[in-house]
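@channel anyone free to eyeball this complex?
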Amino acid sequence: MRSSDDDLLAANGQFYAAFAAGDFVAMEALWAERETVTCLHPGWTGLQGRDAVLASWRGILRQPSGVVVRDEIAVMLGEEAGMVVCTEALGEVELAATNVFVREAGEWRMLHHHAGLIARRGEDDDDEDEPEDEQLLN
Amino acid sequence: MRSSDDDLLAANGQFYAAFAAGDFVAMEALWAERETVTCLHPGWTGLQGRDAVLASWRGILRQPSGVVVRDEIAVMLGEEAGMVVCTEALGEVELAATNVFVREAGEWRMLHHHAGLIARRGEDDDDEDEPEDEQLLN
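replying in thread with the prediction:
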């Protein structure tokens, strides 16, 4: 029997499968059916509402991205909500992501996606083995 | 009587008051007392666990930032968790932020903070009145 964490990670995996393949139909089905959905794409101002968020994904998914997800951390937020923090690799670019899900009719649906740039490989080869935080903390 | 949304926004305001003033004691008190806290600072790899997250803030809060928060959207995630999506202005830099809170002993405490760069004013003055999304959608 799968735990809630497993189901939450599976939903997160479905999000990245749709994103990687450029599958808008799967992406649309994954987002929650409520107007409080929000999305913070890297470098963009925030999007609010299902129509605005899905319009953004329709543009992004015109072509497969080949995004790869890793380092997932799943955190339950009560019984009906959960969050996955993870890393996205898009070619040479790495992003940190926060994905918030809610249960709708028993299924995990995405309520919020936030992705932001960590680093571009090749631009800072001299310190790519060191965590970025050390540069600010020291 | 204050609604849960008001309380959630008040906690979010306390976070930015501590961040603006460089008040580590207030920041430490605001973070949840559990090991599943996570933090994604702009450009950094992810931090997990209360010690790692608070160590990062101890460094950041060595001086007041003067950060200003605006455009807050509060979303309840059941009764015991909630999220605030907002914009941070740090001088000439604007960031999009996701802040997730949980109730501990009746108080909203921060479980997750994620901030990422939107734009630096002055670097792209020619289109600062246009949403960033249009650049990718068109």
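from a first look: Residues 4-21 of chain B form the longest helix (18 residues).
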